[in-house]
Amino acid sequence: MPRQADHPIDPLFLDRWSPRAFDGSEMPEADLLALFEAARWAPSAFNSQPWRFLYARRGESDWERFLGLLIPWNQAWARSASVLIYILSDTLPMTGKAGEPATSHTHSYDAGAAWVSLALQATRMGYQAHGMSGVDFDRVREELGVPERFRVEAAAAVGRIGDPAALPEKLRAREVPSGRKPMEEFAFEGGWPGD
Ligand SMILES: Cc1cc2nc3c(=O)[nH]c(=O)nc-3n(C[C@H](O)[C@H](O)[C@H](O)COP(=O)(O)O)c2cc1C
Questions:
Q1: Which residues line ligand 1 (CB under 6 A)?
Q2: Which atom of ligand 1 is nearest to the CA of 153?
Q3: In 70, 94, 105, 193, which residue has its Cα 20 to 30 A from 49's Cα atom?
């Protein structure tokens, strides 16, 4: 059943969801570049653009290495995606008074904005992007050579939706778009709500 918004919004927001059944196809390079292009135009504090993406394409030599850095639960389904992406942020994306690298309060937040831009662009193009925090973060740093100043934020599996019947039994039942909390639980006028 399609998801229902309580207030009118662009259908793109409802059409984006996180499937686990992907069709195992390869993604044309032009499509992949369009995903990163969408991320590129995300807003960030002082236009510091702290996001970084490390990716592997199905069929390429990096694929198994990238897949092996997810927790086994995620590996079980993400192996049928087309692209695996690790999303990082630069913890020192600013320049200080003496020209030294300086922190930004919102480096993770800005990387999140870039990721969701990528995800929405994916949906628009007939793909879906499934975010993952079930990642062996230490091994990502080590095995993908991530410098100290970059934070490994999360991962994403991107692909075209496949047949849920191909999923392991315990995952099949979950293969439906989720709902959301009512707005009264997260948007408050005038300050934090009293009792
Ligand atoms: C940062 C982040 C981490 C997530 N981690 C995982 C994960 O490790 N494994 C998984 O199966 N789903 C993961 N998800 C998917 C969420 O469970 C999903 O986005 C959420 O239930 C909302 O559903 P929807 O994306 O289909 O609207 C993650 C999503 C995000 C944004």
A1: 17-18, 74, 130-134, 154, 177-178
A2: 1
A3: 70
Tokens 């008074």: give the residue: 97
Tokens of 34: 């369009």
Q: Which atom of ligand 1 is nearest to the CA of 130?
A: 15
Residue owning the nearest CA to atom 15 of ligand 1? 131
Whole-angstrom CA distances from 42 to 86, 89, 104, 117, 118 are 17, 13, 16, 7, 9
Q: Using CB atoms within 10 A of its CB, is residue 43 exposed (0-12), middle (13-18) or buried (19+)? A: exposed
pTM of the model: 0.97
Instruction: Name the pairing type of β-strands 101-102 and 94-95.
Output: antiparallel
**pLDDT tens profile 117-169:** 999 999 999 999 999 999 999 999 999 999 999 999 999 999 999 999 999 88
The answer to whether residues 111 and 50 touch, using CB atoms and an 8 Å cutoff, is yes
Q: Residue 150 — φ and ψ, nearest 5°?
A: -100, 135
